[in-house]
Amino acid sequence: MKFITSDKRVHILDAHSNVWSVIMDIADSGVQEEAFYVCDLGDIVRKHKTWKSFMPRVQPFYAVKCNDSLAVLEVLTALGTGFDCASKAEINKVLALGVNPNRIIFANPAKPSSHIRYACATGVSTMTFDNETELHKVKNLYPDADLVIRIRCDAADAQCPLGMKFGCDPVTEAPRLLEKARELGLNVIGVSFHVGSGCREPAVFEKAIAAARVVFNVGLELGYTFDLLDIGGGFPGDRGTSIDEIAEIVNSALDTYFPSPSVRVIAEPGRFYVSSAYTLTCNIHSVRDVIGDDETTRHKMYYINDGVYGSFNCILYDHQRVVPQPLHELPATKYYSSSIWGPTCDGLDQVVEEVLLPEMQIGDWIVFENMGAYTLPVASPFNGFPVAKVHVVADENIWLLLKDILPLTEEHFVMNRAPTNLKLGFEDVERVAVSKLPIRMHVPGANSEHVLEYVGFLQDGN
């Protein structure tokens, strides 16, 4: 039996709708009380177009760890990106979409043995290393792997520095490791680096690419002919940011240090693709007034239905600063010192420490933009509070593009008014059995219908 799952629903917006109107429809429906996301697939497609325009030589390998939602992975698969996977589970999820193993880099320099065996069994041959122990492990488990040495070149200013954990010194350690790889008879095909997630120092890319050139030369002296350069991640993705400065530096450095087209260049963007695609909306379920000692100063404490154990784990683990926006315009005769708190019993569950907001009430909604990166994959239902659901949307133009490259048939389309099945979201595990679907093709126009709804199928047990 086939099943409809909320994992596969995409609402196609008409010309009069956008993300904010969808949020308002859902919030004002009276049905939805839990926190929810709206994911705009068009934002992801536009990011891909931007990437290809700004850095045409650099092939993106999306960092699956950033957001492994099925809708994201399906769209990126259709667009032809590669994938940066860090575990057996991530590899399995990407391969299940029909992705060729050569479009995957196992970019984890410290891999569990069972994960290496899985990569070997599934033909995922490209993987990174940064230490001698890893070389011996690969020699024993996957001697035919195509290895990429990861060097360290940290940005002085990054949202999440990575150099303390991964990467060898390009001068003092890389030559020794390449000698050991040669001694073990292992195939090293290139060099990778990661300047740090959320890099705020574009110039470091030039420094890192120059360091990679030195390691390429060392490999050549040892008898290797490297043909892969992986420039990692660090590309911003929030609304209002741009990769133009980084792209200019990267393109110039590649022209200087790697002018030959024989060297394939890839990158591992994560937040660039998904950060601005996801907007989170939370409901205020409790309000507390704190009166100062002077009995005139007021501080408002707002308790919402998502917190640091859920979507806002990014505050703790990704060092993110979130910006709250009331969904509806409020009569703001006065703004109050306010703080926003999550729903759990943990006193650390604070979303915003201090912000000026108009007075809000129980039942009001607060919107947080740029919530697509390092949120959903880490969220948990601690204290019994559910993980926020996701409603996926795309405008008509984006859908006309996607429908020709996604694996769809006419049976995947049904008409409905949006939003529908609000209690079902993108990551809801509940499934609804169906026998027959109405096949009604329709492009929304000037009538009362809001969306053309795409419903995908999953085989039972998938």
TrEMBL record:
Matching CDD domains, A to Z? PLPDE_III_ODC
Catalytic residues as annotated in Swiss-Prot or TrEMBL:
345
- Protein's GO biological process: putrescine biosynthetic process from arginine, via ornithine
Q: Any idea which residues bear N6-(pyridoxal phosphate)lysine here?
A: 65
In which pathway is this protein known to take part?
Amine and polyamine biosynthesis; putrescine biosynthesis via L-ornithine pathway; putrescine from L-ornithine: step 1/1
**Reactions the enzyme catalyzes:** L-ornithine + H(+) = putrescine + CO2
Q: Which GO molecular function annotations are given, in alphabetical order?
A: ornithine decarboxylase activity
Q: SUPFAM superfamilies in the record, alphabetically?
A: Alanine racemase C-terminal domain-like, PLP-binding barrel
EC nos = 4.1.1.17
Q: Where is the Orn/DAP/Arg decarboxylase 2 C-terminal domain?
A: 36-372
Function, as annotated, reads: Catalyzes the first and rate-limiting step of polyamine biosynthesis that converts ornithine into putrescine, which is the precursor for the polyamines, spermidine and spermine. Polyamines are essential for cell proliferation and are implicated in cellular processes, ranging from DNA replication to apoptosis.
> Which family does the record assign?
Belongs to the Orn/Lys/Arg decarboxylase class-II family.
- Entry protein name: ornithine decarboxylase
Species per Swiss-Prot/TrEMBL record:
Zophobas morio
The major lineage groups are: Eukaryota, Metazoa, Ecdysozoa, Arthropoda, Hexapoda
